[in-house]
Amino acid sequence: MQDVLNIVRRLVNSEGRAPRDPDSRELGRRGTPPSDVFTTADVYAFTREQEKLHPDNRHVRDKIRQQLQVLRDTGLLLHVERGIWKLP
Fold first, then answer.
1. CB neighbours (10 Å) of residue 46?
2. CATH of the domain at 53
3. 75: domain range?
4. Which residues of 2-33 are buried (b: 16+ CB within 10 A; e: fewer)?
5. Whether 4 contacts 67, CB under 8 Å
6. Contacts of 61 (CB under 8 A, 6+ apart)
7. 11-21 pLDDT per residue, tens
């Protein structure tokens, strides 16, 4: 759960949305209004990173989706609609 929560925190920051490329040094574009909304696809963009952290897990995307649901159930995320999430 912590890994996915860290990804969400990286996606949503005080300067606006982070770029889709997780290896990019840019953390956000100035002038972009802050956003607390992101998509499942945004989190899936970090699949390769998660595969490196958890080499024995052959179902990383499934685990990401499951952990988003756990974060929703604990009240740390809101599920807006299919594929769209929001920080409370």
1. 21
2. 1.10.10.10
3. 2-13+31-86
4. ebbbebbeebbeeeebbeeebeeeeebeeeee
5. yes
6. 44, 47
7. 987 444 444 44
Integer CA distances (angstroms), 13 to 35, 73, 76, in order = 8, 22, 15
Per-residue tokens: 60: 């990383």
The pLDDT of residue 38 is above 80? yes
pLDDT value, residue 33: 53
Q: What is the mean pLDDT of the segment spanning 4-8?
A: 94
Burial class (CB within 10 angstroms; exposed 0-12, middle 13-18, buried 19+) of 49: middle
pTM over 0.90, yes/no: no
Residue 22 tokens, joined: 């997780």
